[in-house]
Amino acid sequence: MVYWLIALACLFIVGGMFSILPSPKERAVGKLRLQARQQNLAIGIEYIHDVNAPTSERVSAGGIRVEPKKRCASWAMEFVNETDEDYPEWTLYKSIRENGPIANAHLVLAESSSLTLDREYWKQIEEILRLSPPTLVALVCNSNSVKWLGHERLETNVEEYIDQMLLFLKRLIELNRLVVASSKQFL
User: Fold this and answer.
1) DSSP type of residue 100
2) Predicted pLDDT of residue 99
3) Do the beta carbons of residue 141 and residue 88 sit within 8 Å?
4) 181: part of which helix (H) or strand (E)?
5) pLDDT at 124 over 80
6) Which residues of 77-111 are buried (b: 16+ CB within 10 A; e: fewer)?
7) Residue 35, Ramachandran bin (φ over 0: left; ψ between -120 and 50: alpha; else beta)
8) Which long-range contacts (CB under 8 A, 24 or more apart) does 94-102 make?
9) For the range 29-37, what are the long-range contacts, defined as Cβ-Cβ under 8 Å and sequence gap of 24 or more?
10) pTM of the model as a whole
């Protein structure tokens, strides 16, 4: 009887140790983030507004308006703003309801940005969005970084995923630099 109790206790201890080990998916995401950090990408977790939340989630049980949040992985590429120029600042949310300058997207422009962004700029953004991993939830551009917010899914190998993300973020930075350079020419 005592041997059964000792065996059962050992089983619980060993089982507890195995339950806290990361799953294969968590290990793969950890490896992905580690390699991305080695490529000078800033990786983190952010909570953003859920623009696709149903009405029932936008109101609490007491009738108070609530802003629903969504947890997303954040992949950011920072760049040096050498001249302190006014870069385009905006946030683009993937939306099932609204159509902004880009189909199926909800756009929030920063009030501090003095640049006017024409239809051609948004067409180029739409082209660049095709390079993005498909699990994009939001995209943020500001004066010193561009940020992809979404869910990490490893449908391809790690190197391909990181290369795809690097290409996507670099193209956004190049486009924003071109917009700033062209706005200086017209001044």
Assistant:
1) S
2) 66
3) yes
4) helix 158-185
5) yes
6) bebeeeeeeebbbbbbbbbeeeebbbeebbbeeee
7) alpha
8) 94/52, 94/136, 94/137, 94/138, 95/51, 95/52, 96/52, 97/51, 97/52, 98/51, 101/125, 102/126, 102/129
9) 29/152, 29/154, 31/158, 32/152, 32/154, 32/158, 32/161, 32/162, 35/158, 35/159, 35/162, 36/75, 36/162, 36/165
10) 0.79
The whole-number average pLDDT for the span 140-158 is: 86
Q: Report residue 6 as tokens.
A: 């000792």
Strand spans (E) along the chain: 42-49, 69-78, 90-94, 105-109, 136-141, 145-150
Return d(Cα 78, Cα 92) in angstroms, integer. 18
The residues spanned by each domain of the chain are: 24-185
Instruction: State the greatest distance between any 2 C-alpha atoms of the chain, in Å, as a whole number.
Output: 89
Contact predicate 138/151, CB 8 Å: no
Given the structure tokens 């308006």, which residue do they identify? 65
Q: What angle separates helix 24-38 from helix 158-185, to the nearest 10 degrees? A: 40
Q: How many residues does the chain have?
A: 187
Identify the three-state secondary structure at position 60.
Answer: coil
Token pair belonging to 71: 């947890």
Instruction: With cut-offs at 50, 70 and 90, classify the pLDDT of residue 29.
Output: confident
Q: Give the bridge partners for 47, in sequence order.
A: 71
- Among 38, 45, 79, 60, which residue's Cα sits nearest to residue 150? 45
